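A note from the maintainers: we've had questions about how concatenated examples are separated. There is no special marker in the raw files; a new sequence line simply starts the next protein. For clarity in this README we add a label.
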Amino acid sequence: CPLKYTRAILDAIHSGELAKVEYETYPVFNLQIPKSCPGIPDNDILNPKKSWSGSTDYDEEVKGLASKFVDNFEKYKSEATDEVIAAGPKV
């Protein structure tokens, strides 16, 4: 991803334009990702699955990362609020 796209994303954040675009829910981690961004000609780079070019299966990598997150979070779970616990990845 060229640096100019990173700058375009940051500019859209600072100007408030990114808050006006449509978002989609990123599964497993339940994050909202923009479907478009001013200054980004190919919006596929905004979606990790669409821009994945790794040698392993994307969905398997996401599940593996989420599992690692959940396992690691067990150390801190007793100190977390119910809201924080509920916001974690769903494996």
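[label: protein 2]
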Amino acid sequence: KKKDDALCRSGRLGVVYTRTGDQGHSSLFTGERVGKDSMIFEALGTVDELNSQIGVCHSMCCELEEEEEEGEEE
């Protein structure tokens, strides 16, 4: 089996709760508090959306590989 089979089959993501409330600010991974209107959050959101699309593509590739493997078995 390929090393990323587990990744192909996994579908669970953890949930993150910060419990810091919402007062117009949020913490970066460095601990720095910045306004939620900061451009850093726009950039992080864009990267998050890109990562999501990469995940969709990866999932589609895994499905195609499985279909090809099933076709070879017949």
